[in-house]
Each structure stands twice: as structure tokens, then as C-alpha cells.
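This follows on from our talk about sequence and fold. Go ahead and set the record down below:
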Amino acid sequence: MKRLFLSLIAVLAIGFVSCKKDVRVTDVQLNKSTLELAVGSTETLIATVLPDNATNKTVSWTSSNKNVATVENGKVIAKAEGSTIITATTQDGNKAATCEVTVIDTVEVERTKTLHDFVVDDIHGNTFNFSQLKGKKVLIVNVASYCGYTPHYAQLQELYEKYADNNFVVIGFPCNDFGGQEPRSHEEIIEFCSLHYGVTFPLMSKVTVKGAAKVPIYKWLTEKSENGVMNAEIQWNFQKFMINESGQIVDCILTQSPFYDKVSAWIEGN
């Protein structure tokens, strides 16, 4: 009887020890074997350790190329274009699973246009490329011959002459959009401007500066979505745009506003 009792105790003890035996990891799995990310984006990989009752499910993470992407607790952070292998390794059994991560630069930010991107025809029919004005301050004006503000030609010419050696230029765009005040032909405009105001600054071909038919350069001048600076629809003839040396809009001066002193101060850097 005593021997039977001792045998029963031994069986129970063995069973108890069996219950306490470590359950080893048999596998580790990742929810993705490949992953594509854009530069700057993140995504979390999920590591599953099998079996469910494994006693040690601690997972460590490594990236084969930390310049491309880093990883911590499964969170992958894309840093630069390229590829890297993300590895999830368990301490128990040294099981591992990998995911190949490809990082691409999918975000292409469209550069905001500058004045220097435009090419137009001048009043003589020649091509005028605004890229030739890089490094110059530019004053762009829509002009007309039969407007109450036509005498602005005189001040514009004076500015052009005074600051010709200061990397400054005036550009005039004749337009007939307001009151039909520029009905003249190109030849007639040239003659009128020369005879009455001695204009020598560059004049471009006649254009439309408002509405759906406005030419591309005036779409850029008047719409913030194009120039990145301001909305400034043309109100009347002789509205002026100040453009800096990099081809970006600085300010807009409405027709009725005094402009000579403001433009002079801007050119002189005051």
C-alpha cells in the first residue's frame, strides 16, 4: 500500500513538472512580406509568435539599412529612397521573419512658376524670353493710349531711365480690355508712345489681361494658385506689378495709387 502511494505521488509530481515545462516558440510570422512606403511615411508591421502559449514572445527588430528605414516595436519609418530588410527575431528559439521594405519618393511638389518661365511676343513680333531678366527687378504694367492714366507713361519712362543701371526694367503690355482704350495697331502704339512720351522701355504685343481669355503671364500675375503670393485681378489700365530679381511677385500697385516714390524706394532697397 505504501509503495502504491509513493508511485501515485511520483506520477503527480511528474505531471506537475510537465505542466511547468516551457513551451518553445515554433514560428514567428509577419503580416507582410513586402512593403512599399513613400519617403517620410510610416507603417507598423505586426509580428505573430506561435504557438499562442509560447512562454517567451519577446521580439526584437532590426533594419538592414537604417539610412533607408528605421524600425522600433514594428513601426517602420521611411527615411530615403532605397530598400531594406526588416527582421523580427524572437529571443526564444531565435526564430525570425523578414519583410522587404522599398521606399520611394512618390511626392512630387510642383515648383511654383516665376516670371522667368514665360515667353511672349514683343510689340515688334519678336520672341521675348523673360528668363533674360534674371537678376533684375521688373515692373510690369498693362498700358493703353486713350486712358485718363495714359500720362503714367511719362513716369514709367523716367523710372526706366533713372534706374537703367540698377538692374531694373519696365515692361508694358498694351491691352484693350477696359473701355476700349487701346484700339491702336502695334505700329500705331509704337509711334504714339515714342512721339508723346519718348518711351524706350520694352513693349509687348497687345494681350487680354482679364477673364477666361487672359494670357498665361497675366493668369500667373493675377492668381495666387499660379504665383503662390496673391490674387490681384486687373482693375483698370496701368495696374503695376513689382517683380523681384528671382522672378517672384513682391507687390501690386493699383492704377489710382501713387507709384513713383514706392517703386523708387523698392529699387533702391529702402
Residues 2-20 form the longest helix (19 residues).
